[in-house]
Design goal:
Structural class: alpha+beta
Radius of gyration: 26 Å
Helix content: 25-40%
Number of domains: 1
Number of strands: 15
Distance between the termini: 25 Å
CATH architecture: Alpha-Beta Complex
Length: about 475
């Protein structure tokens, strides 16, 4: 059966929708959930006024009939709005699945050829380990991964976040900078250097998370929406004219930054200039959302074939072929579901109520994603990274980040400074540990300057979305 695709578009409000078994989706709200509340309040006020007038001695039949029609219409609109809120947002709404991208772009989309379960995982073949698998999670343990580098650099500490114009409360429930570096140490080091008990070490290494807490539910909705719609973004990119037709998008596994890889990216002289060596930096790794390479063609034949099991004979498996990649791809899919605002001081509900909003793509790259992309470029030995911000109804913005060697070295310098303070000096670092350093402040300013000077490379006005009859992807809320 041929999958159904569409490009997102704005629909007009209509009272005829899912009650009648229609597959049409309700109209996205443009701005925030506050607009919904304001309009519903306005509707209620109008209904109240009209009801009062009908109770008066008012006998104009024609006018009364008009008022009754308005009441019915406003009531229907209020029912429509009720479908924009709920406690169970459908994170699969309009998601495009793996098989559909393979069918549409068999020569330009290359899925990962999974490493056989019987094959031991090493630093040399970790890039063939699929993301979000158990072995992928194990590879990430005791490493700083690309997505956490900005936190490891102290970007979310109080004074640093102010300097970077970030909200200090952003991701406040995540692991702190202090905890991140301590978790890299062995149990013996934590005992001898920090005098931690077994109970404290276990809590640090394997923190207990309440999956049903308010923050965890919100976090889960955000992350699941993002991961489930990455292929929507891939499909949107491949359909656009951003890349030449001989460029293929390849899935990626986990890339470990080894001493050999570090020496391929930087010269010995460069590392010495920044007082760096492989031993001085913390264990690092990265999982790009994708990698781009040019397709080698012989008489117009694609270099990989889609097999019966849905996989392909992958165009890369050796280290030499890895070097053929020319760019990383980092995909962000901002969720269209946001928790309703809870006033300061008010009792936080046990479960959040989510509102649907018409989310727009990023106009600039958030500064905390910059170091993530730089870590990916170092790990894959590429010289650029496409940052793609995809939304379900407002299109996609694509930015091209070029590799700056000096900035990359400065980033590694500060990672090594943090790591050495914890590992070798046994210091339980406090927030904003390096904020008095002029060099650190210049690094923060440099980071902000880079992202502010990267323009949108490509604006794709229409997003690719699934528009078929699959019930699990049709409705906004479950």
């Amino acid at each position: 059966m041929t999958p159904s695709f569409s490009q997102s578009s704005e629909l007009s409000f209509s009272s005829s929708s899912q009650e009648n078994g229609s597959s049409s989706s309700p109209t996205p709200l443009d701005s925030s959930s506050s607009s919904m509340t304001t309009l519903i309040t306005s509707i209620e006020q109008q209904l109240s006024k009209l009801t009062i007038r009908r109770d008066d001695d008012y006998h104009d039949v024609e006018r009364q009939q008009q008022e009754e029609e308005i009441i019915v219409e406003l009531s229907q609109q209020q029912q429509v709005f009720s479908r924009f809120e709920g406690i169970s947002p459908n994170v699969k709404w309009k998601a495009i699945y793996h098989e559909q991208v393979l069918e549409e772009f068999p020569a330009r989309y290359c899925p990962l050829e999974y490493l056989d379960e019987a094959t031991p995982v090493s630093e040399d073949n970790s890039h063939l380990v699929p993301q979000r698998s158990q072995r992928w999670r194990e590879l990430r343990q005791n490493r700083l991964t690309a997505s956490n580098i900005s936190r490891a650099l102290g970007f979310f500490n109080p004074k640093a976040s102010k300097k970077l114009k970030l909200s200090f409360s952003q991701n406040a429930h995540e692991q702190t900078t202090r905890e991140m570096y301590k978790s890299l140490l062995s149990r013996e080091e934590l005992k001898t250097v920090f005098k931690m008990s077994e109970e404290e070490i276990e809590k640090l290494k394997n923190p207990i998370v309440n999956e049903e807490s308010y923050d965890e539910i919100v976090k889960r909705v955000f992350t699941e929406w993002g991961s489930l719609h990455e292929l929507n973004c891939v499909s949107t990119l491949l359909e656009s004219d951003l890349f030449d037709q001989d460029v293929t998008f390849c899935e990626a596994g986990f890339y470990v930054i080894t001493e050999k890889k570090l020496s391929k990216v930087f010269t010995k002289q460069e590392l010495e200039e920044y007082q760096l060596s492989f031993e001085k930096i913390p264990p690092l790794g990265a999982s790009p959302d994708g990698l781009l390479k040019k397709l080698n063609r012989t008489n117009g034949t694609k270099i990989h074939q889609v097999l019966e099991n849905g996989k392909s004979d992958h165009p890369y498996s050796t280290e030499e072929e890895e070097d053929e990649f020319f760019s990383c791809v980092e995909i962000k899919c901002p969720t269209c579901f946001v928790p309703k605002y809870v006033k300061k001081g008010a009792l936080i509900p046990s479960r959040p109520t989510f509102s649907y909003i018409c989310k727009k793509p990023h106009d600039t790259i958030p500064v905390y994603y910059l170091t993530q992309m730089y870590t990916q470029m170092i790990a894959t030995n590429t010289r650029q990274c496409y940052f793609c911000s995809w939304t379900a109804t407002k299109g996609c913005h694509v930015f091209k980040v070029e590799f700056d060697r000096k900035y990359a070295l400065e980033m590694l310098y500060w990672l090594s400074k943090y790591y050495q303070v914890v590992k070798y000096n046994g210091v339980d670092i406090a927030d904003d540990y390096f904020i008095t350093s002029e060099r650190y402040l210049k690094f923060l300013e440099w980071s902000l300057k880079i992202v502010n000077n990267i323009p949108v490379e490509k604006e794709i006005p229409k997003s690719r979305v699934y528009d078929g009859q699959d019930s699990e992807r049709k409705n906004l809320f479950n």
